[in-house]
Amino acid sequence: MANEQAYRVGIVGATGMVGQRLILLLDKHPWFRLTTLAASSRSAGRTYEEATGQRWHMTAPMPESVKKLIILDGEKDIQAIADQTDFIFCAVDMDKQTIRDLEEAYARAECPVMSNNSAHRWTPDVPMIIPELNPEHAEIIPVQRKRLGTAHGFIAVKSNCSIQSYLPAFWPLHEKYTLTKALACTYQAISGAGKVFSDWPEMVDNVIPLISGEEEKSEQEPLRVWGKVSAEGIIAATKPPITTQCIRVPVTDGHLAAVFASFEIKPGIDEIKAIWKGFKGLPQELNLPSAPKQFLHYFEEEDRPQTKADRDLEGGMAVSIGRLRPDSQYDIKFVCLSHNTIRGAAGGNVLMAELLCKQGYIRQKS
What we know:
Elements: E1 7-12, H1 17-26, E2 32-39, H2 48-52, H3 64-67, E3 72-73, H4 78-84, E4 87-90, H5 96-108, E5 113-115, H6 141-148, E6 155-157, H7 167-177, E7 179-188, H8 214-225, E8 228-229, E9 234-235, E10 242-248, E11 255-263, H9 269-278, H10 282-286, E12 296-299, H11 307-310, H12 313-316, E13 319-326, E14 332-338, H13 342-358
Helix pairs in contact: 1-13
């Protein structure tokens, strides 16, 4: 897609951790041209460079293309932002009701919203999409548009970052062998809380065995991804049951999961590895720009995957798996890893937008 035909894109919540990651991913994106940045009223009216200042937390430098962009007010300038963009990414830090109202206001202004927030994950007619797993959930968008009274505006949301390390590994196995129960303990990076070590010193040399609300999300959201589209909305699945513990650990990026699983039909170890190697989703079939070539990557080395070594695999968009073996209480156990601010947040959101553009749900305004 030539640059002059690129979709015009905005980011609401551009100064935060996910907003910064989105800026890096959109810089030189072949389909998307970042035209508009918005944040809170504290940042509005300033250049992005001025507003972000020392709070630029990415290891890569701030792109020159955004430094002089003037930040708009994400709450007050909705119509202006909608007029300047074909769609927006939303990654704001507000209470859930305020986020729900804000995202619906953008949608009603005929601006599709790719949400990184959790506020609409259980709204029945809002699809929560992991592009390789449940792209058909986009079929609910016309139902949502009817409720909102829009021709083009809608909201689509990504799932919680913690489930994206292990749910993709379960997905093709459940289709063939039927998962009956699972346990996942996640070891989650501090960037998942929007933090770096310099502003969270208590995390240095420390582990915190609580991430508020995370275990509930990790147990329930997979059931919605496994859900079915109905005339009223997405109906969540009732099984398989997943129990989790979510722990904050002192690493910058990357969510690691220790996983245990049982099935109706017990698969062999070599069968599982072959299924993971061969698994492709619609993004791979469509050759979307952000789609990893090998979505599920299995490491035969006994000490892999490792967070620091493997989180950036395929630009941070692949899921790494290792240590697959039989278990004495479950059928199998293994370890898996995903980059939480790329695959689990900004990158997953960009891939979802690519998919919805390709499927025709997002159009370019004349």
